[in-house]
User: What shape does this take?
Amino acid sequence: MAGNVKQRAADQRALNTFALWTAWAISSIAVFLMMYRDANVWAFVKHDQTRVSWIILGMFILGVLVSLAQAMKLTGEWFRAYRIESMMQSKGLSAVNPRKGRHIVDRFMGALRRIVDEGGKLDIEALVDVEFSAQHRLSQFVGLLGNLMITLGLIGTVLGMTITMNGLHGALGEIGFNQDLLIDGLRSAMDGMGVAFYTTLMGSVMGGVLLRVFSWITDASINGLQDLMLRTCIVHASADLEPSAARDVRNLEASVDHLQQKIELLNMAMQVSRENMAQLREETGRMHQSLSALLEDDPMRKLARSHARYARDVRPGFFARLFRRG
Assistant: This one.
C-alpha cells in the first residue's frame, strides 16, 4: 500500500510542468483579452494594411502550439522518469527494462545499460546532455520566435513612422489648397502611428513576455528531468556503474529473474493451451454425438437402409430363378 501511495505522489509531481504551462496560458489569454478590450488590438489587426501584425499573431500561435506539444511530451517523460526512479530504488540499474522508441529517459537508460554491459567509458553528464539536446533545441525555437516577434514589432514601428512622415508631408503640402487631400494626409499619418504603436505592443507583449515564459517553462522542465536522471543514476546505480564482482552477481540475479519470469509466462501459456485443447476435444465429442444423432434421425438414411435390406433379401431368389430358367 505504501508503494502505491508513493507512486501516486510521483505521478502528481509529474504534472507540475503541464500545470505551470496551463496557468501561464490562462494568464496569456487574460492579457490578450485586456489588450482587446482596452487597446482594441483585434480591430487594428483586421485593418492592418502592412500585415506585420498578422505575421506577429501567426508566429505567436505557432509558438504556443509548439510549446503545448512539448509540455505534453515532457509530462509523459516525467511520469516515466519517476517510474524508473521507483524501480531503481530496490535493485539498481538491473531492475530497469528500457522501452524502445517511446521516451527519452528510456533511450538514456538503454544507452547507459549498453555502455555498462560493454565496459565502455561512461560520462553520465555528457550522455544526458546528448539525449535531451533535441528538447532543448525545441525550447530554444520557441524563444527564437519570441525574439523574432520583438524584431517584427520594431520593423512595424519603422514602417508606421515612415507612413506617418509621408502622410504629414502630403498634408502639409495641401494646406490652403485642397482640404480633402489635407484630411487624407492626416488620416494616413494617424494610420501610420497606429501601425507603429500596435506592432510594438504586440511584439513586445506576445513575443517578449508570453512566448519567452513558455520557453522558460519547458526549458526548466528539461533541466529538471536531466537533474532527476543524474541523481537517480548517482544515488541508486552508483554500484552498477563501476566494474566489480558484486555488480556481476547483481546482473546475474537480474538475468535469472528475467528468465524466471519468461518461464512463468511460458508455463501459463502452456496451461492455457492445454485447457483450450481439452475444450476443443469436448466440443469435438459433442459435435460427433450431435452428428450421429442427426444421421440416425435422417429419413434418407432410413430409406437407404431399407433398400439395402431389400436388395440382400431379393437378390438370392432372383439369381436362383434365372438359373432354373436357363
About this structure: Residues 69 and 91 are 34 Å apart (CA to CA).
